[in-house]
Amino acid sequence: MTLAELIDGIALHAPLPAAWAALGVSGLEYDSRRVQAGVVFCAFAGAKADGNAFARQAMEQGAVAVVSETPPPDGFTGP
Q1: Which of 75, 51, 77 is nearest to 67 (CA)?
Q2: Are 72 and 66 in contact (CB under 8 A)?
Q3: Which helix (H) or strand (E) holds 16?
Q4: DSSP for 61-72?
Q5: Residue 66 has what pLDDT?
Q6: Residue 18 to residue 38: CA distance in whole angstroms
Q7: Residues 35-53: tens digit of each pLDDT
Q8: Cα gap 41→69, rounded to integer Å
Q9: How many Å apart are CA 8 and CA 65, to the nearest integer?
Q10: SS3 category, 23
Q11: Left, alpha or beta for 75 (phi > 0: left; psi -120 to 50: alpha)?
């Protein structure tokens, strides 16, 4: 599945660049400690921590994208 197929039908704030749309997705993960190459990291705000704080770490561990309801953290440049 590609990132474009995964988010088909979701209203985005900006168009998804073609290079990002073609990224292969192997799964979803909400725990940054379990992120593996090819997954989309879902950065939820939890009772103890905000997943956005771990967005950069998730990308470094191989996540292809980060999904969040809030703006990206300062300096974050991934999809």
Answers
A1: 51
A2: yes
A3: none
A4: TT-SEEE-SSPP
A5: 93
A6: 17
A7: 999 999 999 988 888 899 9
A8: 12
A9: 15
A10: coil
A11: left
CA dist 65 and 51 (Å) reads: 13
Token readout for 14 is 């900006």
The count of C-alpha atoms lying within 13 angstroms of the C-alpha of 68, restricted to the half-sphere facing its C-beta, is: 21
**Which tokens go with 67?**
């999904």
Q: Is residue 55 a contact partner of residue 72, using CB atoms and an 8 Å limit? A: yes
pTM, 2 dp: 0.87
Specify the residue for token string 């440049």. 77
* Percent of the chain residues past pLDDT 70, beyond the cut: 100
